[in-house]
Structures are given as C-alpha cells and as structure tokens.
Amino acid sequence: MAQKKQTYNQAIAEIEEILEKMENEELDVDELSDKVKRVSELVRFCRNKLKNTEEEVEKVLKEMEE
Amino acid sequence: MAQKKQTYNQAIAEIEEILEKMENEELDVDELSDKVKRVSELVRFCRNKLKNTEEEVEKVLKEMEE
Amino acid sequence: MAQKKQTYNQAIAEIEEILEKMENEELDVDELSDKVKRVSELVRFCRNKLKNTEEEVEKVLKEMEE
Amino acid sequence: MAQKKQTYNQAIAEIEEILEKMENEELDVDELSDKVKRVSELVRFCRNKLKNTEEEVEKVLKEMEE
Amino acid sequence: MAQKKQTYNQAIAEIEEILEKMENEELDVDELSDKVKRVSELVRFCRNKLKNTEEEVEKVLKEMEE
Amino acid sequence: MAQKKQTYNQAIAEIEEILEKMENEELDVDELSDKVKRVSELVRFCRNKLKNTEEEVEKVLKEMEE
Amino acid sequence: MGQEAITLFQLNQKIKGVLDDAMLHSIWVKAEIGELRVNRTGHCYLDLIEKDETNDQINARSRAMIWAQNYRMLKAYFESTTGQVLGAGLKVLVKVTVQFQEVFGLSLIISDIDPSYTMGDLARKRREVLMRLEEEGVLEMNKELDLPPVIQKIAIVSSPTAAGYGDFINQLDANPYGIKFYHHLFPAVMQGERAEQSIAEAFDSVFEHIGVFDAVVLIRGGGATIDLLCFDSYWVAYHIAQFPLPVLTGIGHERDESVADLVANTSLKTPTAVAAFLIERAGDFLTIIDEKAKIIAEMARDLIQEEKQRTEQIATSYVPGVKLDLQRRTGRLERLIGRLPLSVSRRMGEESNRVMRMKDKIFDTGGQLVKDRKAALLRYQQSLLLLPKHKLSEEKRRIGYLENTSRLNDPDNLLKKGYSLTYLDGNLVKNVSGVKPGDIVNTRFYDGELLGKVEMVKKKNKNQNKK
C-alpha cells in the first residue's frame, strides 16, 4: 500500500522509472508481475488521493477556520 | 525440475547456451539426451512462469483498468 | 565391447584415428584385422549410442509436447 | 611352415633380406635353393595371412552392415 | 668325385686357381692331365649342383604358383 | 729307354743341361755323339709323354663336353 | 476693539476678487491624488497633494472637484487609457481652474486630465520596484520553485466578498474530473490604500500553515473595478517572490502585467483561468498516470506475449535442432564406416601386390643367379678346352727346338760335310803338336776310316788356329 509520505511526484517518478525500464527492455519476466502490481498500487493511490477526501487534511483545514 | 531460486532469465540463458552448444556441435552425444531433458524442463518452467505471470498481470491490470 | 566410460566422441575419434592410419598405410597387416574388429565394435557402440539417444530424445520431446 | 609367433611384418622383412642378399650376390648357390624354399614358405605364410585377414575383415564388415 | 662337404664356391675357387696356374704356365705337363681331370670333375660337380638347384628352385616356384 | 720314374720335367732339364754343355764345347766329339744319342732318347720320352698327356686330356675333355 | 471690521463674506468677496483678477484659468498642475470620492449626484471630490520626495511629508494640499458630467467622461477616458482606476495614490496631470466661493472656500475645478503623465509615472515606479527586487535577488525566486504536478491544497489570498472568489471556489469544487481540491481563504483587502498591507499580512498567515498547502493563489475578486495599484507595490511583490510555496496570480488585468504577476510562479489573467489551470493540471496528471499505466499494461502484455512466442519458438525449434544434430552425427558415422571397406581393400590389395612382386623378384633373381653361374661355368669350361692344348703344343715346339739343337751338335753331321776325325792310339787328335812323323793314325770319315802314317808335321800360326 502507499506510504504515508508518498507524493504524486514520487508516484509518477516511480511509474516512469518502471516504464523506462520496460522500454529499455531492462525488465525481466521475473520482475514483471511485481512491477505491474506496483504500478497498479501507485495508480490506485494517486486516484484515491486525487478523488477522495482525506480526513486529516479536512481536519487541519477546519482547525484553521476556528 | 526447476530449482526454487531459478529465474526466467536464467532459464532462458541456460536454454540458449545449450542450443548454441548444440549448433556448434560442442555437445557430446552422451550429453545430448540429458541436455534435451534439461531444455525440456526449462521450457516447461518458462511456460509455467509465463502463464503464472500472465495470470497475475492480467488480474492486476483488470483491477487497474476498472 | 565398449568400455563403461567411453564417450561417443572418444569412440568417433578412435575410429577416425584407425581409418587415418589405414589410409596412410601406417597399419600393419598383423594389426589390421584387430583394428577392423575394433572399428566394428566402436561403430556398434556409436550406433547404439545414437539410437538410444534418439529414443530418449524422442521420449522427452513427446512428454514435452503433451 | 610359419612359426606360431611369426608376424606378417617379420616374414616380409625376412623375404626382403633374402632378396637383398640375392641381388648383392651374397648368396651361395648351395644356400640358394634353401633360401628360395624359405621365401616360398614365407610368401605362402604371407598370402595365408592376407587371405585370413581379408576373410576376417569381410566377416566383420558384413556384420557391421547388418 | 666331389667330396661330400665340398661347396659350389669352393669348387669354383679351385677351378679358378687351376685355370689361373694354367694361364700363367705354372703348371707342369706332368700335372696337366691330373689337373684337367680335376677341373673336369669340378665343373661336373658345379653343373650338377646348378642343375639340382635350378630344379629345386623351379619346383619350389611351381609349387608356389599353384 | 726312359726310366719308370722319370718325369717330363726331369727329361727336359737333362736335355737342356746336355745342350748347354754342347754349346759350351765342354764335350769332345766322342762324348758328343753319346750325348746326342741321349738327347734323342729323352726327346722321344718327352714326345711320348706329351702324346699320352694329350690323349688323356682329350679324353677327359671329351667326357666333360658330353 | 473699535477697529473697523469687515464681514467674512466681505473678506471672502475680496479674496474671490483677487483670485479672479489673477486669472488662474486652465492651468496644468501636477499632483498626487490623496483622496477621491464621488457623491450621490456623481460629482467627484478630490484631495490633491504634493509630497516631499525625501521624507514623504506633504508639502502642499488642495481640494479639487470634477463635475459629475465631466467626471464620467474623464474617468472612462483615463481608465481606458491607463488601465488604472482613477483613485488615491495616482500622480496625475490635470487642467484646473482655481475657484473661490464664499461658502466653500478655495477649490480646484478639474476640467481635463492627461493620462500619459500618470502612465509614465506608474511605469517608472514599476521599474523601480522591479529593479529593487532584482538587486535583492528575489525577483525570480518564486518562479524557480517547482510547481507540483497536482496542486490540490490551495491557500487563497483574496477578498471573501468578491464575486471572483466565489466563482473560483465553485469552479474548483465542481471540476469535471471529480478531483477533490482543498482550499482555504486568507482574506485580504484587495484594493485601496490598505490593500498592500492586507495582502502582505495574508501571506504571513499562509506562511504559518505552510506545511498544509501546495500553492498560494492570489486572486482579485473585484468585478468591474480595476484598482491594481497594490499589485505593483514593492511589498506585495516582495512577499510573493520570497514565498516558499509557488504563487499563482489571477488578478484580472487587461493590459500590462503587474509586478505581482511578474514575480509570481505562474500568472494567469483571471481567477477563472487559475481555476481552470489547476483543474487541468490535476486532470492532466490523472490522465498521464492512467496513460502511463495503460502503456505499462500494454507493454507488460506484449512482453509476456513476446516471451511466450520466444519460448514456444525455442520449444519448437530445438526439436528439429536435436534431430538434425543426431542426423548429422549418424551421417558422419556412416561416412566413416563407408571409408572402412575401401581403405581395407586398398590396403589388402597393396599388400597382396607387394607379396606378388616379391615372389616374382625371387623367381627372377634366383633364375638370374643360376644363369650367371652357368655362364661362368661355361667360361671356365672353354678355358679348360683351350689352355691344355696350348700348353701341349708349346711343349711340342720346345722339344722340337731342343731336338734340333742337339742334332746340330751331332759329329756325324760334320763328317758328312767333309770333316774328319783323326785318332792316335785311340785318342782324338785335336792338335798337331803331339804327333810326330811315323805315327800311325786312324782317320774317320762319315762312311768309313783310313789308316795312315804321318810323314810330316806342319804347325800353323796360332792366329790362324782360332776358328
């Protein structure tokens, strides 16, 4: 699962790294499914983060209002 | 049978090595049937590996693509 | 009969050596029939070896194709 | 008659020795007929040897072709 | 008559010795007829010897040809 | 008459001795005439000897030729 | 007391009379607008001031007004030319007529305004601000900050009452991608004299919560009003430039970019544009991620397919390979075997010929040997035929010679030739010295003898006797 601190930048960097490896044919069949899983996680992480409300952030913002 | 730790790449490399030896006639007849067995095992191992990898990857991708 | 440890390649090498000696007239009449017998044994050994190998290989290949 | 242990090569060598002596006129008339007899024996021995060898070889070759 | 042990070569040597003496006129009239007889005997001995040898050789060769 | 044991050579030697004496005029007329008679006898002896020898030789040679 | 006094009205009449006499009509005056307000009827009342360049102290001040009808015209002209709201803080070049009214006192009636003066002044001020920021090395600072791919947590510096703000919020919240934006308003006065200070304070407040936000959005809420002076101010620009988060501006200017726009990380024309930018950027990110994931998915599938093909190719290709190998080997073996009978029979044939040659040679040599011996023997035989005959004939000749020699010495032969022998007393007379006359001598001839007496003896010379 996505780490606490993972940012969009890190996620896309990781995805791009995997993509680059694939394009350079540096990716083994052995690694393939792990890497694909990883990409899937990263995509899901980004989507969640983008579309779903993070309660922590909401809370911080609310505290600020007071 | 394939060892626990064997990777797909190692298997392919081993197959190619054996095939090259075969083509260069570096292989004694005495070794031939063992080597054929070996290649056969390796091919089976590779097929399984690919099949498993494909299933895993497809599962992940389907989840991702939804 | 062929020795336990004799390899196909050794047998072929021995046949070639005897043939070459014969063709270069390095072989005595006294040795000739023994050498021809030897070649005959070696040929039988090689043929068996090839036949067995072929059978083994066929078997392996059939297994693989299933 | 040929001795048990006589080889074809020894026989040929003896014939050649006698021939050489004859050609160099080192051979007495008294010895001549004995020597000629000897050569005759040797030649017969050689021919037999050749014939036997040929038969053996033929046999071996026939076996080999089967 | 020729002695038992006389060889062809000895006979020839004796003939030559006598003839040489004759040529060098070292031979008395008194000895002459004895010596002529002697040579005659020797020649006959040699002829026989040659004839026998020839026959023997011929015989051997004929046997050999068969 | 010629003595039994007299040889041709002795006869010739005697003739020559007499002739030498004659030439050296060591003989007077009386001896001379005796000596001449002696020579005559000796000559006859020699001739006979020669004749006999010749006949013997002829005989031997004829035998030899046969 | 007791002094003659005039009424205020009289005094003001006098002042009015002096001023009228001074003919202070249509004079172009440079001044700064200190304050400006418009009353219900549309007349505009201003405070014109002049400050000391060095200490900002007010050197001069005068009230001024523009009649409502004139004001509407001038304002539109000025604002459309300069892009600035005619208001406090601006330096203006105005055409005035000095008017003194007894009730209101001194007032400057503005009849015209030259916008180009104001524009020059503003431009100069802006240049000064930019130069200062550059000298301080902060001009590009905010621009150098990386703009995150997704700006999701937004600090908004704006006026809460402004319509622009509300639109901005609505636009963000209703984005078509369903992206959740977090935003918090840091209220600030966006126009007027207090604006500069208020904006700077708002940025300070954002700074206190800097960890929460991805970026600061500075948007101006004012609809038609275009009071942008504060955005050219040094302090606002200074705050923006040095701010550790990227600042996006949507101030809504028509003409030149404000200094705030120049130093901001990203400047857009309007709050709407900023909202659209943020939405598109996040949306793009989503799209990029999806696309890359899709490419990876395709590549993964391709890789698997390729490897499958490769494996299957190996699986199918090495079978013929092995068979070919075995065939090759079989062929090689059979070729070797094929060489055997030929080389054996060649070898055997050679040996057989060799033995045959030897046999023939023995025959020839043996025959020759016997022949040579026979010939030698024949030669001896021939010698034997010749040599004794030769010897015998020689001996014969020799005997003949000896006989002849002997015969020559036979005295009988001498007698026959006429020689004779004389004997005395039986002895041969060889000389006359032993003979004396009277001796009886016997003389022999070849055919007989004579007896006689010696009558006389005659002796010859010795010389003659030698024969």
Report the strand count of chain G: 14
Tell me the total number of β-strands of chain A.
0
Count of helical stretches of chain A: 3
Count of DSSP H/I helices of chain G: 9
Shape of chain A: elongated
Strand content of chain A: under 5%
* Fraction of helical residues of chain G: 40-55%
Overall description:
- The complex is a heteroheptamer, with six copies of chain A (66 residues) and one copy of chain G (467 residues).
- By secondary structure, chain A is mostly helical.
- Chain A is 76% helix and 0% strand.
- Chain A is built from three helices and no strands.
- Chain A has helices at 8-23, 29-51, 55-65.
- Chain A starts with 7 loop residues before the first helix and ends with a helix.
- The model of chain A has no long low-confidence stretch (mean pLDDT 84).
- By secondary structure, chain G is an alpha/beta fold.
- Chain G is built from nine helices and 14 strands.
- Chain G has a five-stranded mixed barrel.
- In chain G, helix 3 runs parallel beside helix 6 (234-242) and helix 4 packs across helix 8 (271-408).
- The mean pLDDT of chain G is 87.
- The chains are: A mainly alpha (66), G alpha/beta (467).
- Chains in contact: A-B, A-G, B-C, B-G, C-D, C-G, D-E, D-G, E-F, E-G, F-G.
Give the arrangement of secondary structure elements.
The complex is a heteroheptamer, with six copies of chain A (about 70 residues) and one copy of chain G (about 475 residues).
Chain A: H1 8-23, H2 29-51, H3 55-65
Helix pairs in contact in A: 1-2
Chain G: H1 8-22, E1 27-38, E2 44-51, E3 58-66, H2 68-82, E4 91-101, E5 105-114, H3 115-135, E6 153-158, H4 163-173, E7 182-187, H5 195-208, E8 215-219, H6 234-242, E9 247-250, H7 259-263, E10 266-268, H8 271-408, H9 411-416, E11 421-424, E12 427-428, E13 440-445, E14 448-453
Parallel strand pairs in G: 3-5, 6-7, 6-8, 8-9, 9-10
Antiparallel strand pairs in G: 1-2, 1-4, 2-3, 4-5, 11-12, 11-13, 13-14
